[in-house]
UniProtKB/TrEMBL annotation:
Domain of life: Eukaryota
Family: Belongs to the Rho GDI family.
Presence of the UniProt keyword Cytoplasm in the record: yes
GO CC annotation terms, alphabetical: cytosol; membrane
GO MF annotation terms: GTPase activator activity; Rho GDP-dissociation inhibitor activity
Name under which the protein is recorded: Rho GDP-dissociation inhibitor 1
InterPro entries per UniProt: Ig_E-set (IPR014756), Rho_GDI (IPR000406), RhoGDI_dom_sf (IPR024792)
Length: 137
C-alpha cells in the first residue's frame, strides 16, 4: 500500500509543533563552581588532572576580592586602509582617553581586538557594548 502525501493542513500543524519546540528551551545551566572546586573534583584521576591543567594552566587564584574578575588591558583598532593598528593601553589612567580622539572615516571597515586578563574565576560570558560619537564638524 502506497503512503499518501501529507496535506497542507498536516504540514502546517507539523511546522507549528516544530516552532513551539524551538522556543520552549528548558535548559538550566549547572550551578557555578569555583576553579578550586573544579580542580578538586577529580584530583585522583591523572588524565583529567592533566587535561584541566592544559585548559586552565597553572592557576594562581587571587585572594583579593577588590580586584575585578576581568581586566581589559588593551583595545586595538585594525583597519586595512590605515598605516598601522591603533593601540590603546588601558592599564593606566582612563581619564586621559576622554580627552583623546581619533578619526574613523564613515564607511570604512575596521576590526576591534580586545585583550583582557581573567583573575579569579572562569568567565562564562562577556558582553561588549560600543558607543561611537560624532564630534563637531
Amino acid at each position: 500500500m502506497a503512503e499518501q502525501e501529507p496535506t497542507a493542513e498536516q504540514l502546517a500543524q507539523i511546522a507549528a509543533e516544530n516552532e513551539e519546540d524551538e522556543h520552549s528551551v528548558n535548559y538550566k545551566p549547572p550551578a557555578q563552581k569555583s576553579i578550586q572546586e573544579i580542580q578538586e573534583l577529580d584530583k585522583d584521576d591523572e588524565s583529567l588532572r592533566k587535561y584541566k591543567e592544559a585548559l586552565l594552566g597553572r592557576v594562581t587564584v587571587s585572594a583579593d576580592p577588590n580586584v575585578p574578575n576581568v581586566v581589559v588591558t588593551r583595545l586595538t583598532l585594525v583597519c586595512s586602509t590605515a598605516p598601522g593598528p591603533l593601540e590603546l593601553d588601558l592599564t593606566g589612567d582612563l581619564e586621559g582617553f576622554r580627552r583623546q580622539s581619533f578619526v574613523l572615516k564613515e564607511g570604512v571597515e575596521y576590526r576591534i581586538k580586545i585583550s583582557f586578563r581573567v583573575n579569579r574565576e572562569i568567565v562564562s560570558g562577556m558582553k561588549y557594548i560600543q558607543h561611537t560619537y560624532r564630534k563637531g564638524v
